[in-house]
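> forwarded from #structure-qc
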């Protein structure tokens, strides 16, 4: 997860689309295919593939309470940090302390997200989120929170992630786009690209009978920090 946080910072630091694409492509090639697949979903700004319609049901107020507890900071300090950044992930990255033994792997984060999604009730979800952020370094926590809230804010659209997959695995962009449109799963699209099997993509059907590409989702409400 450290490398993903670093690449997100680098992507956010440039406005050049070609540079963003190159950074993502180089990062993907440096990971195992399983890590790269999960990373593409996260880089698209979501914890899960679009077709699944899985949600974590973790609100901003829950995250705020966990960050406040783990940081040990006064409410005024947290509020000041939020006013500066306007982003709870950035607040987490600033105020959470560095502890020995911290550090998460991408696959650990993905598994933890699924545990949170499956947990029933705010108490169970809070405990799982607390454990995840406790184990994360501050830069990792920043992007864990951003992904949970669906508010990545690094100037990276899913279409650029598709371009990065094509570049990283010597695939035709049109084939990557077609596969992702059918699958609604950019991670699975990457796995097919890595195996040279993009042409075999077939449509995934969600529980509701359809899926929408993450880049097509509009009108997302940013989670409120307070009840």
């Amino acid at each position: 997860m450290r490398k993903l946080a670093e690449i997100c910072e680098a992507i956010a630091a440039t406005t050049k689309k070609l540079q963003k694409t190159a950074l993502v492509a180089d990062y993907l090639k440096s990971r195992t295919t399983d890590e790269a697949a999960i990373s593409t979903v996260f880089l698209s700004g979501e914890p899960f593939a679009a077709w699944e319609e899985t949600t974590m049901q973790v609100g901003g107020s829950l995250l705020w309470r966990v960050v406040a507890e783990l940081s040990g900071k006064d409410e005024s300090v947290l509020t000041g940090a939020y006013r500066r950044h306007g982003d709870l992930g950035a607040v987490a990255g600033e105020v959470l302390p560095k502890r020995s033994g911290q550090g998460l792997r991408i696959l650990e984060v993905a598994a933890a997200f699924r545990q949170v999604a499956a947990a029933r009730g705010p108490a169970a979800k809070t405990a799982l989120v607390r454990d995840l952020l406790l184990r994360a370094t501050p830069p990792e926590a920043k992007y864990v929170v951003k992904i949970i809230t669906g508010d990545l804010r690094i100037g990276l659209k899913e279409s650029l992630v598709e371009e990065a997959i094509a570049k990283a695995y010597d695939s035709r962009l049109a084939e990557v786009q077609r596969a992702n449109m059918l699958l609604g799963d950019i991670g699975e699209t990457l796995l097919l690209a890595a195996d040279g099997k993009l042409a075999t993509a077939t449509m995934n059907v969600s529980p509701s009978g359809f899926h929408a590409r993450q880049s097509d989702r509009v009108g997302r409400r940013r989670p409120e920090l307070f009840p």
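QC bot note: Residues 211-227 have pLDDT under 50 and may be disordered. Residues 170 and 227 are 48 Å apart (CA to CA).
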